[in-house]
Amino acid sequence: MLQKFRENKRLQGTLLISPTLLWMIGLLIIPLIFTVITSFGRRDADGNVIYTFTVDNYLRLAGITPEGFDSLYVEILWRSIILAFQTTIIVILMAYPLAYFVARGPAKQRNTFLFLILVPLWTNFVIRIYAWIMILRTQGVLNGLLGLVAGLFKIPFEPFDFYPSSGAVLVGMVYEFLPFMILPIYTSLEKIDGSLFEAAADLGSNAIRTFFRVTLPLSMPGVVAGTILVFVPVMGTFVVSDILGGRQVFLVGNLIQRQFLDARDPAFGSAASIILMIMTLIVTIFYTRRFGFGEEIASA
Fold first, then answer.
1. pLDDT for 300 beyond 60
2. Is 260 helix (H, G, I), strand (E, B) or coil?
3. Per-residue b/e over 95-131, b at no fewer than 16 CB within 10 Å?
4. Distance, CA of 237 to CA of 128 (rounded, Å)
5. How far apart are CA 35 and CA 282, in angstroms?
6. Is there a contact between 202 and 117 (Cβ–Cβ < 8 Å)?
């Protein structure tokens, strides 16, 4: 029996992956199936789900109601997409130069820089976001510094009303997800063979031409992996918009949260969750098929 087990590689592989397989079935596949079923149900007067088959929840999300077109949920979905897009673009512009600096910097200092990039992630997520309230509020650190500088140059200064606002939410999103863009780009840049730069220089290419013809194309897998790691979570998060938006900036993540906790309409919340999942899957499949990525996403 033991000898047969040693010779049967397929059985060995099945036993090795069985814990992970059971974990995924119990915590991913079954809840997902239950969410899909619930999304086609409806809510009764007591907030319980009546399991039937209706597409009313999806029509409601699309703005189609018996009273006519209601753009409320379409606007929420569109606002979430725009915010995720803005966050991703800003994070790429900030992360790429920093990742380039770390990857091309002295080898002895790379671990120190990477340590400094990762340090904020070791602090509680909610605490980090609450810290931005102290910075962005009217009587906060930012207005204090601007007022101090204006006072030195005798310039009239009125404190800005940064918090709560959609701008504060964008700042919080960029801050929170910046490391998830830096690490995959850094991994891509570090893998580039240095001899390629020497070859480009021998062929008469200057630094700018080398960057656009060699460095940027070879680092695109990192940019793509970072885009997925930033865009997808931003689409679904609700903590940042709740705290820095003062519950005034309503995103699809907030919509799902409040349907389950406040409105007690899990059927509609499940439908919104499925729509969110489909949107993120479309983005992920498009980018991975178009560009692909390897170990960059694992590095983050």
1. no
2. helix
3. bbebbbebbeeeeeeeeebeeebeeeeeeeeeeebee
4. 15
5. 19
6. no
Residue 188 contacts residue 219 (beta carbons within 8 Å): yes
- pTM for this prediction: 0.85
SS3 (DSSP) at 158: coil
> Structure tokens of 227?
């885009």
Q: What does the pLDDT read at residue 297?
A: 55
Provide mean pLDDT across the span 99-114: 87
The confidence band for 17, taking pLDDT boundaries of 50, 70 and 90, is confident
Residue 266 burial (10 A CB sphere; 0-12, 13-18, 19+): buried
Query: In whole angstroms, what is the distance from residue 199 CA to residue 216 CA?
Result: 16
For 217, half-sphere exposure in the C-beta direction (CA atoms, 13 angstrom radius) is 6
| Cis upstream peptide for 97 (omega within 30°) | no
